[in-house]
Write a structure and sequence with these properties.
The structure is a homopentamer of 88-residue chains. The first copy, chain A, contains no helices and 7 strands. With 88 residues, the first copy, chain A, is mainly β. The interface between D and E is medium-sized, with 31 and 31 residues.
C-alpha cells in the first residue's frame, strides 16, 4: 500500500457499467516524510475518504476486493484513512 | 487507474485470436495537471473512446474484466471518458 | 521480494474491515548493499516484525496468501525477518 | 501492452519444464515515436514473431493466456506483430 | 521475464511457513548488453541456480507456478539458467 493525499475528483459520464455510482478520486502518493512521491493516479474509494484527506490505497488485483461480490475494473482503491503515522 | 490522452491507433494483422475486432489505441498517460507523465502504451477500449479524447484506463488483471466472458490478453484497457476533473 | 527496513507504523481508525487487527508498517526498501532504494510503502506483517528490523516483503497478489483463508486487501506483506545476507 | 522491437533470443537448456519448446525473445520497448523506452526484457511469443520485427506484448497474469490450457511461468508475451501505427 | 545475475543469498530463520526449505537468492537484473539495470531483488529458485550464474526470472502471480501445488508467497522466481543470448 502507499500513503497518499486526495487531490480531487474525476467526472466521467461514459464509463464501464461496473463503475456506476463509485467515486473516482485523484491521488498524490506521499513518501514516509509526507512529501509528494511519484505520479498522481485515479483510485476508487471504499472508506468514505474526501478531498484533502490523507489515506492509504492498495494497487493491483486486490483493489477490487473491498467491493466484493461486485468486481469493478479498478487497479487502485483507498482502503483506509490515516489518523497519523510514525517513522524512526 | 490513470488519466491519459488517446494519441492514435495500432494496426496489426497478425495477433492473438482473442484480440480480433478490438481497437488497439496508443495512450499518453497524464498527470493531475494534464501534462504528459510516463511512457506511452497500447490499450484496449471498452467505452468507445476516440483519438484526441481524455480517458482513464485500468492496468493489470482487471483490464480484461470489461470484456467478460471473453478474456483478451490485455494489461491495459480504457474504462471511462473524462468529462472533467478537479484538483485542489 | 525485496529487502527493507521497518521504519514505523500507520494508525488508521477508519479502514477496510478485513484490515482490522493487522499491523500497518512503513517500509524503506533496501538495495543489496543495504542502502535505501526506492520509495517507502505501507505493508502488512505476517511474521511478527518490528520497527528497526530488516525484513523481506512480497508484492502483488501473493501478499494476501499468508493470511489465507482471510483475504485482506493488501499488495505488500512482510514474509520474513532477515538474519543476514551475502553478496559477491 | 507496449510496442517493442525484437532484438534477439535467449538460449537456456536448464529451465522450467513448462517453457520447453517456447522461444525466449529479447525485447526493447518503444515509445509512440518509435524510440527505445525503458529496459529490455525477455518475452515468450504467441504469434510467430522474429528478430527485427516490431511487435506489441502484454505483461502480467495475462501473459500466460495465449498458451491456455498450458500455463507457462511467463510475465511477458508477444501478442501481435505491428503493421503500422499512427499518432496525432 | 528479465535477465539477471545471482549475487548472493538471504538467510532468514523467521519466515512464512510456505518458504521453508526454499533458497532465497539476491539478483541483479541485467540489460540486453549484460550491464546491471534496475534494483536488486530477492527471488526464489526453481531450477537449481547458484551464485555467479546468469539466469532469467519471472515476476508476479506466475512466480508461484513452478512450485505448484505449493503456493509460496513469492513475486519473483528464477525459471531458467542462461547458456547465452544474442542481440542484433
Amino acid at each position: 500500500m502507499q500513503l497518499a493525499r486526495v487531490l480531487g475528483q474525476v467526472v466521467a459520464t461514459m464509463k464501464d457499467a461496473n463503475l456506476t455510482g463509485l467515486k473516482l478520486l485523484v491521488l498524490q502518493p506521499l513518501s514516509a516524510s509526507g512529501e509528494p512521491a511519484g505520479r498522481t493516479l485515479v483510485a476508487l474509494d471504499s472508506v468514505g475518504a474526501g478531498v484533502g484527506e490523507t489515506v492509504f490505497f492498495v494497487r493491483g488485483r486486490e483493489a477490487a476486493f473491498p467491493f466484493y461480490p461486485a468486481e469493478p475494473p479498478t487497479d487502485a482503491t483507498i482502503v483506509g484513512i490515516v489518523d497519523h503515522w510514525s517513522v524512526t
